[in-house]
Write a structure and sequence with these properties.
This protein is of the alpha/beta class and 572 residues long. It contains 19 helices and 24 strands. 34% of the residues lie in helices and 22% in strands. Helix 15 packs parallel to helix 17.
């Protein structure tokens, strides 16, 4: 071959190589002109981010990223807004969010009379005999209490008056108590005479009764099943409608990943169907419900399902070990301050925690145990520790969790860091519950171990944050605000409750991003804005990291991006 031909071939090769390399390093999208917080190890800020094929290609200065731009690169001008890694809801109940929109939503009811009015309206639109269901009431959040209260709860009389022909079943906001009318109790065979057989104390729960021995309509924990088992089962069409609504709600609130705290096979199959149909939108990390031993046995045999697409992963188990503080079901070491002789409920035999912890280690499953009271937290830590010591070679990276971990004995706080147990907490519970929680626990226990975020962080633990939706709205902004202020959403008290336990804004951001990712074994894929990680972003209209504390609650989500695709845009 002549020299000239060789040179021409070489030149063509170099041009094609350059074009190929240019294509590989050319982003399809650039985000710029905003406050971009990476949530990396140093919580750094960058001026721009380049994305290609749904993954982060580069981060850096405006000049560095702008130099990568190609003729087909789309530039998204953040217009001074704030972009963070996609927010991760680390403990919620996705179907509950959807069903709150399909049934009576009682979350914002301020009095018992208002609850009765809502039920009366539903009765007008219902056929005789049709069940009326809802969720969200919380007697301690009402601005005025009804005249007739038994053990801190309302009675069914007014409710039953407006619904004589319709059974009514209303779940407490916490999910740990229910309220039924007379018609529903008649169908369930619950009356003063039957209580002698049923006993007011149901194992793992309680039927609240008045001084004459009549049921008041309030059932706590496992006792709720006496009426709840009669509520008609949902249909698949309704389930899919609820799921669609829940996903959209998450996207509108900036949630890109969701840890579902306890579901069954039907829910997992539904998620798979939505993924196949391109309707899933958010990334799901599912905890298997420990209420179904048969379900767990099937999954022990098959092993975890870790999605290579990072959309539907099943590798954890949820155990429900005590109740909630509102209905006095949280399991305490000492009596409730406002109810002598009562320490709450163990809702699951502790030997089951031991068994599931050991099998979880053996079969590759993370164990996540609901515990609110200090007794429940201690019992679970003890059983986790026993399992770790029995199988030390399997416990090197277990990432076992305690869900809520709200009220701890001071002696148990260091154990979270020592054992590598993750306290998955929801800061919004402090904001909502603290004003009345002191009545349940008293000042000394509140100060020693209630919502002790800084003490847990200092122990070496990490805290993934969330809302426990639909116990609280899935919006993470109020929970972020509670994390850094330790105030109610009304901005009280001045300085916050137990202010030494406040999170810094850096810690709060990490609790909703990289800590959430770590809690589901995904910290190498998401949770921070770093090269090689997925382009999941949340864009806020205000700089939540610098604006005055009081303005945080006015912040709105401007955009939600999952895998480089804008799935929610407030402008559209």
């Amino acid at each position: 071959m002549k020299l000239t031909s060789k040179l021409l071939c070489l030149g063509l090769f170099l041009v094609l190589t350059a074009l190929s390399c240019s294509s590989i390093n050319t982003p399809d999208t650039i985000y710029t002109n905003g406050h971009i917080y990476t949530s990396d190890i140093s919580n750094s800020k960058v001026e721009a981010v380049a994305v290609k094929d749904g993954m982060i290609l580069a981060t850096g200065s405006l000049a560095e990223i702008d130099a990568m731009k190609g003729k087909n690169t789309k530039v998204i001008d953040l217009e001074g807004k704030t972009m963070t890694p996609g927010f991760i809801e680390s403990h919620g109940h996705l179907m509950g969010i959807g069903y709150n929109k399909l049934e009576l939503d009682l979350m914002y009811v301020k009095t018992y009379d208002e609850l009765v009015e809502k039920v009366a309206e539903a009765v007008q639109n219902a056929k005789p005999g049709e069940w009326i269901t809802g969720r969200g009431w919380h007697q301690d959040k009402w601005i005025e209490r009804p005249d007739n209260m038994v053990k801190g709860f309302q009675t069914h009389d007014k409710l039953s008056e407006v619904s004589p022909d319709n059974p009514v079943y209303l779940r407490h906001a916490s999910g740990h108590a229910t309220f039924a009318n007379e018609k529903a109790m008649q169908l369930a065979g619950v009356n003063r005479l039957s209580l002698e057989q049923l006993s007011s104390e149901v194992e793992g729960g309680e039927i609240i009764k008045d001084d004459l021995g009549n049921p008041t309509g309030v059932f706590t924990e496992r006792a709720s099943g006496l009426v709840g088992r009669l509520v008609p089962q949902s249909t698949e069409d309704k389930d899919e409608q609820a799921l669609e609504m829940a996903i959209q709600e998450c996207l509108e609130k900036g949630i890109t990943s969701f840890h579902d705290a306890g579901s069954g096979q039907g829910f997992i199959d539904r998620l798979g169907k939505f993924k196949t149909e391109g309707k899933l939108g958010i990334r799901m990390y599912v905890m298997l419900s420990g209420r179904s031993p048969e379900l767990l046995e099937r999954w022990y045999e098959s092993g975890p399902m870790i999605d290579p697409d990072h959309y539907v992963t099943v590798r954890s188990i949820k155990l429900n070990c005590d109740g909630a503080l509102g209905p006095r079901g949280a399991w305490l070491l000492e009596d409730y301050t406002d109810r002598a002789g009562h320490t709450g409920h163990e809702t699951l035999p502790m030997e089951v925690v031991t068994e599931v912890s050991e099998k979880g280690l053996q079969h590759g499953f993370q164990v996540c145990s609901h515990a609110i009271g200090d007794r429940a937290n201690r019992e679970i830590l003890d059983r986790y520790q026993t399992a770790f010591e029995k199988y030390p070679e399997l416990a090197t990276d277990h990432r076992f969790r305690i869900e809520h971990a709200q009220h701890l004995s001071g002696a148990d706080i260091p154990r979270f860091g020592e054992l590598g147990v993750i306290p998955a907490m929801q800061a919004i519970h402090m904001s909502s519950d603290r004003p009345w929680a002191i009545d349940r626990l008293g000042k000394a226990r509140i100060e020693e171990g209630a919502y002790v975020w800084q003490d847990l962080l200092k122990s070496g633990a990490i805290i993934p944050n969330g809302t426990d939706a639909p116990v609280e709205p899935v919006d993470p902004i109020p929970s972020f605000y509670a994390s850094v202020s330790r105030k109610t959403l009304a901005g009280l008290p001045e300085g916050g409750f137990e202010p030494n336990q406040k999170m810094s804004r850096d810690q709060a951001l990490k609790s909703f991003t990289i800590f959430g990712a770590f809690s589901e074994f995904e910290e190498d894929f998401k949770g921070s804005i770093e090269v090689g990680k997925v382009a999941d972003f949340t864009v806020f209209d205000k700089d939540i990291m610098t604006i005055p504390e009081a303005e945080i609650l006015n912040t709105k989500v401007a955009m939600t991006i999952v895998g480089g695709k804008v799935l929610y845009d407030a402008k559209q």
